[in-house]
Amino acid sequence: MSADFWSSIAAAHRVDDEDGASHGVLTPDPLESEPESDEDDRADGVFAPQFVQTTGVHQYMRTCRALGVIPVQQFISMLERDVVSLKHRGVGAVGGQAIFECLRHNQHIQSLDMEDNQLGLNVDVDAQAKPGSRGGLDPLCDAIRENSVLTNLDLSYNNLAARGCAAIAEAFEHNSSINELSLRGNNVGDFGAAALAAAVGKGKLAKLDVSDNGISELGGEALGKLIANAAGPLKQADFSWNALRLTGCLHVAEGLKTSGLVRLNLAWNGMGERGAEAVGGALKENHALQFLDISSNRIGEEGANHIAVGLRENQTLRSLQLNGNPIGDKGAIVLIDAVGHNCSVRDLGLQDCLTKKGGVGIFDTLNPTGGYSLNLSEEYEKAVLNKLIELDKMDEASNIPNFLNVCLNSKAVEFGEGGDMKTWPIPETGVLTFDYVCGKKVPKEARPLRDEVFQSFMRELSNPALSESTKLLMLRTAATTHFYTAEQVRNLVRLIEYKHRVDAVIMLFRRMVDPTNFAARVYDLLKPSEATMLRTRLGPALTPMLPEADQTATVFLTEEAADGVEAQLPHQA
User: Fold this and answer.
1) DSSP string spanning 358-369?
2) What is the pTM assigned to this prediction?
3) Dist CA 109 CA 242 (whole Å)
């Protein structure tokens, strides 16, 4: 490329001074191709002296010219910024050498995102032998060693492979400023994971992402040792989408017992039941972890039971994600019961966990209000009914009927004079459907979900890819740990399809901290047919919260009406 080409590149990124001051925003000058000031004013006739001294622009331009690559104009325009993103730019291995050569001298960039730029050793190998090339990842490693300003580096999906990761790991032993590093999707394997774990243990890294890297059991051992020693800087680790399997997860769980990690992601690693048992054991002893994701790990009911045991003794975990595990209804209920007693968890993820269609779904003893369909020939589902009857006996002080609209095989149940569920002889078989309304009100000390957390939940719930059953499941699980204002309930209900909105209101009915606002903010949202159904299913518990015009007698289902309404009664979810 000719000298005129390089002159035009430089002239397109001149920095204009105002009142003699240098500025960090580079702006093209469409009217002039030559600089106004002379060599005394600008060190190279194009860039302001201060810009040259603090950005490494000269090193970048010289390296690009020596390697025969075109400078990234967007990069030049951001050299004085704190945050620079060059993701998906196709920079390549040689172009990356010029960028990291510049980074050795740059005094501004604190966060650099180089995701998906093919920086690895196996990309554009021939170009590395050209005159002036320093070869491979040397400039990147030198930048890591020498730059003391950069704090966040994202190298995701760059084909670094094991040898590239090992080189970066060695460089990290000499770096004391970078505290966040992402090597996601680089196929680093067990060798790269071991090299990186050894290096991170000596550095200042606070956040490490090695997800989607083909790390198996051997690498899991290294990662387990890494987090076991993470009592200092390292607080967040993402090991998801690897192949740790049982053996690797056992090592990680062992390290977790004494780890100082605050967040750990182990999703999609195939830990299975024994791995879940090890994680449950780690939760008993860990005193730091606040977020744990073990989604899609082939964890069943047995594993859920072990995790529940660990939860009952853990006092720090705030969020537990188990999405995509076939734990079933029983496993979900055991976990919810553990969360509700002596546990700090406030966010329990159970999406795609219920393998049983229909049936009891999720049952929460602390928030049992909802619709039920129980197969009395199933021992477990009959046990749920007995538990609800126990709750009914404990709820005498509320002076409201807890069981409403009771039907056996689609026919209304007649209890007789003075009879109720507590005196009714439960049949051995048949499908029992009913609504249960808890008389226990929200505790005075309950606080609604913080606005920023609520907005995040709203964004998740509004995902168009979610089915209505999944949305209802999310609401039910969220209602096991959170309370809401009536306004928040209104916003949540509006995200549910018309035919399921009553179900959503019932799930959240006993989780509102300001029930006096229920009529104006929630009930007023419903259409007449929905309001009628809500009054039928909540009965006298709803009456005090309604406008006088709607405080009508509760309508209980008759045998004739039962056939038409039974299908609308939701499974507890």
Assistant:
1) SSS----TTS--
2) 0.79
3) 31
